[in-house]
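Tutorial, part two.
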Amino acid sequence: MTRTDTLIVDIVELRRHTGTRRDVEASLALDDMAVADRSIVDGRLDVALTVEAITEGIVAYGAVSGTTRAPCRRCLDDVDTPLRLDFHEIFENDPTDGETWPINDERIDLTPVIREVALLALPLAPLCGDDCVGPEPERFPTGAFEESEPAKDDRWAALDELRFDE
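Running the prediction step on this input gives:
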């Protein structure tokens, strides 16, 4: 499997006959594969796709896999989760904004498509296990969460004297 940071496929041969296919396998190492505190581990995604010529352009379909990392919604420890996505996208000479992707100079660039699909699939609130009870008390000093009286602001002192009759 090829290891790369871009995945550009030459489609000249494919477009000669509708229905012609080519398998594409690669291991991508992409930068900036994170949204807030959720990420793709090391930006690494394994790609196994088929690129096929269709009447309107090119269709790419297959699977994208990797590992996601996000904090557990209860205990906040990192949770690594396998990621496996089915992939199906269309490339055209005159792409429809938000629906299809462009063909540039008889090549298709799969990198931005794969990046978008993977980032949209990041888990929102994973759980490290069904039995997770939340943060361990030893991790936080005693009294760290005790409520205290908020500091008074002298500018609002006159409102403290205000009373309403019922």
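Helices lie at 111-120, 157-160. In part three we will examine how such features are distributed along the chain.
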